[in-house]
Fold each of these.
Amino acid sequence: MGIIYYLVPDLHRRQLSLRGLFRAIKQGRGWHYCQENLLVKPKPVGGIKVMYQHCQLLTQLGYQAYPLLMGKYHGNFFDYDVKTKKIKEIGYQLSDSDIVVSPEFLPYLGLQFSQAKKIVFNQSQSWLYHQQRVKAVDRDKDFLALGYDNIICCSDYLTDLLQQYTGLQATTITNGIDHHRFCPRPEKRISRRVLALAGKNTPQLQTILELAKKRDFSFRIVDGLSESMLIDEYQQADIFLAIAYPEGFCLPPLEAMHCGCVVVGFTGGGGNEYMVDGYNALTAADGDCQAVVDCLARLEHDIQFKETLRKASQESCKKYSLARTQRQLHHFYQPLLEPE
């Protein structure tokens, strides 16, 4: 049986060079350049988290599955007990029974493994800019024409969108949540605390904070936390502010729902799979900051409605389990690794 390798790109590779530094100094960006290339600490990335999760679930099923580190970035901030491999140890000459799983935003990454089966793992809407990420000679080629064999997506939303825009067929392996870890702790909840994650759409977040400053809420903005620390933040929050868009699935709001938060904000597209406005969340059109503040105002004055949303969200997110994800993984990989 072959081995499955999920390719973890070197996301925080530093590009420091004397030429680049001198150029930045001339542009008045010397300190900023040093910050970007010397002081930046690696941070958790949701898409890498899902790759580790897949490897753990596949290993439990008896498959050999490893995150394959393509550089120094390891990406495991999530307490997953998963063995990793390094590209320096494994090399690019895999067998034709092996499988490499490559992120969609680096179209050539998986193609370096000429003999292995190649799968694109689509977790975002970045493929809409596919032509800008490939060489001029390849601009008329989709993922399959480039040399990939299959495509998997983390949501039905992405699978449908990909087919709508490109005609490509993909298999959905829906993101799941560990219900044992991501769970409510009502005794820890701080009334009127609104939690948001920094990192995406900072101008929109700042606008919302400014518009809502007279509201009776305390805002807490966090970034770069380990999974256990993030769960603790979710459990303490009353409301989670979803500000990321566009999104392929929008995992943090679902995690927040599992931990008992009422979700308010943008769906990013992918969040529409589980965020239903007025039923289990309050949503606004992506980028409409005033509408988000209006949603917060509604919850400020209608506590009963807020609790109704919270109860409904707890029911809605139950189906997004790791067991479901594991079944979908087995259904997809079994024919590839155990052909009849």
Amino acid sequence: MAGIDLIHGVRADRPALLDDAGGDWVTYGQLADLARRWATRMSGPRGLVFLHPTNDVASVAALIGAFSAGHAVALFDPSLPPATRADLQELYHPRWTVEPRFDSVRVCGDRMDLNPDLAVLMSTSGSTGSAKLVRLAATSILANASAIGDVLDIGDTDVAVGHLPLHYSYGLSVLTSHLVRGARVRLTAMGLTDKRFWPAVREADVTHMPGVPFHHQLMIRLGLDRLRLDHLRTLTQAGGRLEPELRRRAHQFMHDTGGRFYVMYGQTEASPRMTTLQHADFPAAPDSVGTALPGCRIEIRDPDSTGHGEVVFSGPNVMLGYAHSAADLARADDLGGRLHTGDVGMLDDAGRLTLSGRVSRVRKLFGVRVNVDEVEAAVTSFGPGAVTLTGDRLTIHAVRTGRQADDEQFGRAVLAGLERQFAIPANRYALRFIDELPRTRRGKIDYQALEALS
């Protein structure tokens, strides 16, 4: 039977968690006691738990409690609308629905057949309310947490900011990788623009700040030096591509302050992280996402003449497969530890991976092979923006500067540069200006919303 013990062997008196309620740090012993109480409320035969966590101690205790009771846990956004929740319950028949913020455990189904290795279900990367879930084994979650701890050199004196949602695979991995090392996590539901966020981070003596590109853009705009993060020694970036200049500035800041900046690459389907670019490797390969985690392997499938092809990842953290309904929860391992990521990239001689886009965003337009992500990278070298493809027309969504002359100059420079670089006539591009880029709850660019505006 699957089980995940994230806090085994850690001294009971060591501090573990602190959330926005304040007070003293919850120790590992206290966390274990809270988890046992949640487990008692979910006692009975092994079943499926729908957990809607917020970034607080109660949610982590409920998660650990469900694991210790031997259940499989599906993690969902607590803000999902009632209709979406009802649809998911109809599809998956959970035995319990748990909402820690309301101290609520509701029995809503019967026992069912589950793969004995199944421990976690999460929405796929692009959609928080999707019925398509990733099936993850207990061994995969623990293997990834351990590997992350190794490559980031997480120790029991480290303190991470737990600001990423726990139903998001990156957020969950920050939590698990620190708990298995006996470290601390300062949980918070506050955003980086909340005036209370940075004082809370400083007060907790945070050593590790994780973030997606949007968070790093904000931090650099605010000024990393002005944030006065005196104890910060680890800055990590994952969840998408960060502009090269911002990566360089983040690396330089951490280098100057004696810390480390890591670029990481992952997918929910890999529990979730697959590669890490070490701080020392950044100057030699600033566009890379690094080498595979320990015990894992990256290969390039069907490379073209430039060495680019589909990224294939192998390792103990690869998912069991997807689920679309309750019937899939008993399925065996569909992938055998080998994941076709759908990403396009190449490996250098040192085994470092550089990504160039998604397989689904590579098209042939007028006889020319076009990688939409490469076009977008070219656009963002001029300024903030994004690119979508509808039919045979590329739409450039550029963020207004507030100065018409600057916008017009940007437009001329971008269109001329793209025609020169990609050999596609300028009349095949549409340029539109928007006030800001729409983003998902996870901070990523919402391409569906952009396409709807096109």
